[in-house]
Amino acid sequence: MGRATKVVLAYSGGVDTSVCIPYLKEEWGVKEVITLAADLGQGDELDPIREKALKSGASESLVIDVVERFVKDYGFPAIQANALYENRYPLATALARPLIAKILVEAAEKYGADAIAHGCTGKGNDQVRFDVSIGALNPHLKILAPAREWGMSREETIAYGERFGIPSPVKKSSPYSLDRNLLGLAIEAGPLEDPWTEPPEEVFALTKAIADTPNEPEYVEIGFEKGLPTTINGENLSPVALITKLNELAGNHGVGRIDMIENRLVGIKSREVYESPAMLVLIHAHRDLESLTLTADVTRYKRGIEETYSQLVYNGLWYSPLKAALDAFIQQTQERVTGTVRVKLFKGNAMIVGRNSDNSLYSHDLATYGAEDQFDHKAAEGFIYVWGLPTRVWSQKAD
Predict the structure, then answer these.
(1) Quick one: which of 181, 243, 336, 363 has the fewest CB in 10 Å?
(2) Helix orientation angle between 239-252 and 277-293, rounded to the nearest 10 degrees
(3) 329 to 205, 239, 302, 332, 333: CA distances (angstroms)
């Protein structure tokens, strides 16, 4: 099944992507497989992954650190967009896919590969995200997905790998499927496939159980400049350092867990459990700061844009014309979203308890009911007459 001669393979070091290496060569006639693993701040030591790829038959094994690019170019724009898929999930995994696709295409062009391969199955969202993103970035590259076509069970996949010197997992593997990066952890499969089953504490890595969190609240002040988070408690931090610190602060108070039934792009419902402490707090705080600095009509219109944006990211359309158009709108709205938000972390909750901005549209003299009140109460009567006129006319005709 010779489809390509030189392939760049998205590589995680797991069974499926390791088996892809000999499978591509033996079954599909690929001459050379170059693996690429992306360091997204997942916390794993990636040197063993590099070695495993070479032992599995890769001609070259690339490990690329893209943590800063990930946070700055993908995570932060999502915060400006208040991107929450189905108003809950901050897209930590979905945001990583267009970046991985980008570095796969860059590697393919650098090494003269004619195809890119990945280990996605035919059931998940990632196959769509990779295929569409790669096609958008370089439509001339072939895309190979062996695991989508080989039809082997996990046991058969392991046995196939053993024939080519790929060791089977030495311990009983966890029933859970995990995908981690600096922006969050996605947990699925195993007992979680029953929507009635409560996730056990053992699956969580970024957040404490409520019983183990501090008994006193902690206040965190988050500074934003043009919609981008820049400071924690007055300290200027790089994007990666800021996410890292806020993950620790919020996770320590049990903030950042999500348990939801999610509508996948491929048409099925999936039970998903996520941890994303920093992203949830930042989106919550950013949205609050917008309420202080954006006009009412922009705020309301942007809510619809945010939902569309989240769907585009989730559905693998990061590199699409509509996404680019929405980016321009969102960036325009962020010009005045500068200020500080005070968040109270306590027992699994992140409560906004204060906000200020030099660009604030809040006027104390207009809002107050005290002696300083400057609102013209007499103007209300004429306003109400005009505002309610269509309703009164309709009511008269209805009699």
Answers:
(1) 363
(2) 100
(3) 36, 23, 9, 5, 7
- Give mean pLDDT, residues 372-386: 88
Residue burial 245-276, b: 16+ Cβ < 10 Å; e: rest: bbbebbbbbbbbbbebebeebeeeebbbbbbb
User: Taking residues 239-265, what's their average pLDDT?
Assistant: 97
pLDDT band at 172 (very low <50, low <70, confident <90, very high): low
Is 17 part of any known ligand binding site? Answer: yes
Enumerate residues 6+ apart whose C-beta is below 8 A from 2.
28, 29, 30
Query: Helices 277-293 and 296-314 meet at what angle, rounded to 10?
Result: 150
Active site residue 291: no
288-305 pLDDT, tens per residue? 999 999 999 999 999 999
Q: Whole-angstrom Cα distance, residue 183 to residue 202?
A: 20
Q: What's the mean pLDDT when you consider all of the chain? A: 93
Q: Is 382 marked as a binding-site residue? A: no
Q: Which of 177, 259, 264, 320 is catalytic?
A: 177
Query: Is 10 annotated in some ligand binding site?
Result: yes
Active-site annotation holds for 131: no
> Which alpha helices (DSSP H) does the chain contain, by range?
15-28, 47-55, 67-70, 76-80, 92-111, 126-137, 146-149, 154-163, 239-252, 277-293, 296-314, 321-333, 364-367, 379-398
Q: Which of 50, 56, 61, 97 is catalytic?
A: 97
Contact present, 27 and 144 (Cβ < 8 Å): no
Considering the candidates 50, 56, 61, 126, report the single residue annotated as catalytic.
Answer: 126
pTM given for the model = 0.93
Q: Are strands 184-188 and 177-181 parallel, antiparallel or unpaired?
A: antiparallel
Is residue 274 annotated as involved in ligand binding?
A: yes
Condensed to tens digits (0 to 9), the pLDDT of residues 22-66 reads 999 999 999 999 999 999 998 777 888 999 999 999 999 999 999
**Burial of residue 336, with CB atoms counted within 10 A of its CB: 0-12 exposed, 13-18 middle, 19 or more buried:** buried
Q: Is 160 annotated as a binding residue?
A: no
Would the annotation count 18 as a binding residue? yes
What are the structural domains of the chain? 6-163 (3.40.50.620), 177-356 (3.90.1260.10), 364-398 (1.20.5)
Judge whether 177 is annotated as a binding position. Answer: yes
Let me know if 126 is a catalytic residue. Answer: yes
pLDDT value for 170 = 55
